Amino acid sequence: MFVNSMATSATMHICHCNQPVLIVRTNEVALMKATLSMLLLAFATTCASAQTSEVPAVPKPLQTADCINTRQINSWSIVDARTAIVRTGPKYYQVNLKADCPQLSHPPGLIFRSSGNNNGMDNGRICGAIGETVRSRGQPQCAIESVVIIDKARYNELNGQSRMYKDSATKASAPMH
User: Fold this and answer.
1) Which one of 23, 104, 127, 169 is at 20 to 30 Å from 40 when CA atoms are compared?
2) pLDDT score at 146
């Protein structure tokens, strides 16, 4: 029989047999269980937060009534390589692109292409839906990430920041469907 002389009878397990005995104190087992539980909790929390932070929120398209009616565009400006602003009468919009699109700064106009995903009801409307694009004449298409309604003050602020082509006198080019 093997007995640890430092252990008390309350904290050790003794086997009266002819095989070697492993003596583990009860408080050591509890400590190992607590440590393992904390490690698993920390791992699960880290994985959950990493998973939610890596998935960007997908912008929702505007409702059809709020979308840009490309037949009514009377002013637009390219703010930077990923942002355009559009005015259709009393409505103001910010168009955000999925990637840099520096070729939009080339005049004479913008050509929007709707996705056709609105059950054929888009009628030249740009809502920020998947598949919508914008381009300048003779230039490649640029995917639209989102369309956001903005107020006149924000439109004027962005228009003042614009260092690229502006068109405030003529209508944008006719839409392509």
Assistant:
1) 23
2) 96
- Residue 148 near residue 172, CB atoms below 8 Å: no
Query: ∠70-105-97 over CA atoms, to 5°?
Result: 60
| Residues paired with 149 in a beta bridge | 93
Q: Cβ atoms within 10 A of the Cβ of 148, count?
A: 14
Torsion, Cα of 115, 116, 122, 127 (10° steps): -20
Cα 47 vs. chain centroid, distance in angstroms? 19
In this prediction, residue 8 has a pLDDT band, given cuts at 50, 70 and 90, of: very low
d(CA 156, CA 75): 12
Sequence-separated contacts (24+) of 79-84 with Cβ below 8 Å: 79/158, 79/159, 79/161, 79/162, 79/164, 80/162, 80/163, 80/164, 83/158, 84/110, 84/134
For residue 90, what is the DSSP state? T
* Rounded percentage of the chain residues whose pLDDT exceeds 90: 39
Q: How far apart are CA 15 and CA 2, in angstroms?
A: 8
What is the pTM assigned to this prediction? 0.61
